[in-house]
Every structure is written in C-alpha cells, then in structure tokens.
Design brief:
- The radius of gyration is 19 Å and the shape is elongated.
- The chain has one domain (1-80).
- The chain is 85% helix and 0% strand.
- 7% of the residues are buried.
- It has helices spanning 3-32, 37-46, 49-59, 63-80.
- It starts with a helix and ends with a helix.
- The longest helix has 30 residues, at 3-32.
- By secondary structure, the protein is an all-alpha fold.
Length: 81
Amino acid sequence: MGESTVALIGGVLVFCLALWLYILLPASMATDRGRSAVGWVCLTLIFSPFLTIIALLVLGPTVETTLARFREEESAKRMHQ
C-alpha cells in the first residue's frame, strides 16, 4: 500500500467524520427534539458543531414533542390495561 492510498483512506475517513459531525448528528438530534434539522445544520456550519450540540442538549425537546410523547405513552398504557 503506497502513500497515496493511505492518504486517500485518511481523507475519506476525515470526510465521513466531518459529514457525521457537521450534518448527520445535529440533524438527527434536532429532529428527535422536534426542531428544524435544516436550521440547526445551518447553525452548525456557521458556528461550531460542539456549540450546537450543547445547545440542543440544553434546550431539550419542544413542548409539542413532549406532549406528543406523553400522549403516546398514555395511549400505550391504556391498551395494556
């Protein structure tokens, strides 16, 4: 394996890590919390992925998302009784 092959593999790994850190992780975190994935990815690109990840963790889910999950849990409890 030559140096160019190692550099190519390293480049692909760095690209995949950056893609995950800057796009996939913030988008999935925002979606899980009922927030705009596109908006949070844009914030990640403007600021820092670490800042936006911390902000998403601190903000938590939206009220609508929390209520929807609560309703789902209540309906599941009723079905099992």
